[in-house]
From TrEMBL:
Keywords: Coiled coil, Cytoplasm, Cytoskeleton, Microtubule, Motor protein, Repeat, Signal, TPR repeat. SUPFAM superfamilies: TPR-like (SSF48452). InterPro entries: Kinesin_light, TPR-like_helical_dom_sf, TPR_rpt. This is TPR_REGION domain-containing protein. It comes from Nitrospira defluvii. TPR repeats lie at residues 108-141. Transmembrane segments: none annotated. Pfam families: TPR_12. Residues 1-24 form the signal peptide.
Amino acid sequence: MRRLGIAAPSVVLALALVSCGQQTWDAAMQAGEAAVQRGQYDEAERIYAAAIKKAEEFGRHDRRVAVTLARLAQAYSAQGKYVEAEPMYLEALKIYQEVHGENHLDVAAMLNNLGVLHRKHGQFADAQRLLTRALAIKETLLGKEHLEVALALSNLAALSMAQGEAGQASTLLARALAVREKQLGADHPDVAKTLVDYAAALRKVGRNAEADALDARAGEIRAKAKS
């Protein structure tokens, strides 16, 4: 949720400088990120939109253009502007593919973001295609026990749940849980979140006792974090 409040002077100044072309691309990106950190997504949107023009000075297909487009898309998404976010992600994806080829983590990130957008719009076939491709790239480049792979598995699980395929979701979440436990430790907040999601999937297929155990364990992790 966007936090209310007046934009910090540094953000306002940065926006003004970007708009009139007096700030570097690096400084503009820092200003946009500062606005995001403050929850001022509308300010971030305006800064990133102006920063695209600075990035294009390096060439229309420079990687920095793709980075800026992706940040602008994230600012849109944070405000629920999914229709506006999609063409930004698509253009960033096109540039990343031209710069890196098809098998690169930047490409996987854009495929993932587009897949999530399609899921939210109920376009499940497109979401499945995009998220599956993102997972395959990450597994190839990072191995099957990387945290980025766990993220891709969780996104596919959310799609499966949206489609009413809780059994498939539970299988994906079991894999994601194993990766996060190995990489983060058994008491990490991300592990607790995965346990809750896994429990919800198991309940949908009638495995209530297992779900209760997972929820209880998640509760213990969260209680420990507060103590």
